[in-house]
Design goal:
The protein has 274 residues and is of the alpha+beta class. It has two domains: 48-183, Jelly Rolls, CATH 2.60.120.10; 194-273, Winged helix-like DNA-binding domain superfamily/Winged helix DNA-binding domain (Arc Repressor Mutant, subunit A). It is built from nine helices and twelve strands. The strands form three sheets. The chain has a four-stranded antiparallel β-sheet with strand order 1-8-3-6. Strands 2-7-4-5 form a four-stranded antiparallel β-sheet. It has a four-stranded antiparallel β-sheet with strand order 9-10-12-11, with helices on one face. A hairpin with a 2-residue loop joins strand 11 and strand 12 (259-262). Helix 1 (48-56) packs across helix 2, helix 6 (196-211) packs across helix 7 (227-234) and helix 6 packs across helix 8 (238-248). The radius of gyration is 20 Å and the shape is elongated. The termini are far apart.
């Protein structure tokens, strides 16, 4: 097996998916900075049966016949990443390969350190961004993994052939990208017309819809988000987010052990409307 030039290294510097030593990544090795293309071209330690099972859990691949899932697993590249690994998908690769987050959680972002803007949060079981369907900016697509994750790279040509044999797959992709476009338009409208407290309230509502757990008191966001991370999601700075939380506490939002609790959803919705 030849060394995998595209697979990331773990934070300790050890290869994450191939047993052989790899050349040093061309993007550098700082673990908190984007540093490499994510797609691997050699097998990793994700077993064949596990690959097929993970693919069946991807939203756009639901109801795909087992033989198609098996064929897709055989022609795709799988890579494991550690929490806080950050990668760059180069523009040419963005256009030619779909990136599927099979397991874990990640954020897609733009901008230099200190001025980052989080474009989206991605949960396991879906497509990352619009990879495989369009070109991206010259700087590439930047992705930070928030917990240990497994990603899969699928060649666009192979996916198009799959859609040709399974037309409903194309409808699922169109629906997914349409929903993301609507959400992005809403966030842009928030940036243009709302102040930081209202933008923060809107972002918390999005987190409620995507990941909240129901509690006797209301809703709980199970994942921890720092004020800085929330700031990158709404185009603000950390200090402004801290002040905004002070205002939202009067409207049914509480912070406990770095987790967000919502005790009055209706008041939060009214705040988000501005």
């Amino acid at each position: 097996m030849s060394p995998c030039r595209w697979s990331p290294q773990t934070r300790s510097g050890a290869p994450s998916c191939c047993s052989e030593a790899r050349p040093r990544c061309p993007f550098g090795t700082a673990r908190h900075k984007p540093r490499m293309s994510v797609v691997a071209r050699t097998p990793d330690h994700v077993l064949a049966a596990e690959r097929e099972q993970l693919l069946t859990m991807v939203d756009i691949l639901e109801s795909l016949p087992p033989e198609e899932v098996r064929a897709l697993a055989q022609c795709s590249a799988f890579t494991r990443l550690e929490a806080r690994d950050a990668v760059v998908v180069a523009p040419e690769e963005h256009k030619e390969r779909l990136l599927l987050l099979l397991e874990g959680r990640a954020r897609v972002y733009e901008g230099p350190a200190g001025r980052e803007l989080t474009v989206s949060l991605v949960e396991g079981g879906t497509l990352v961004g619009a990879t495989g369907f369009a070109s991206c900016r010259l700087g590439g697509l930047r992705v930070e993994f928030l917990e240990p994750s497994i990603v899969c790279g699928v060649r666009r040509q192979a996916f198009e052939e799959l859609v040709g044999r399974n037309p409903t797959l194309g409808s699922r992709v169109a629906r997914l990208l349409g929903e993301r476009l609507i959400e992005t338009e809403g966030r842009l409208a928030d940036l243009a017309r709302k102040e930081v407290p209202e933008r923060l309230a809107s972002q918390i509502l999005r987190l409620v819809e995507s990941e909240a757990l129901v509690t006797p008191e209301g809703y709980k966001i199970p994942n921890c988000y720092t004020h800085q991370q929330l700031a990158t999601m709404i185009g603000a700075n950390r200090e402004a987010v801290t002040r905004a939380f002070g205002r939202l506490r009067l409207g049914g939002v509480e912070l406990r052990n770095r987790r967000i609790f919502i005790t009055d959803l209706e008041t939060l919705r009214r705040t988000a409307q501005g």
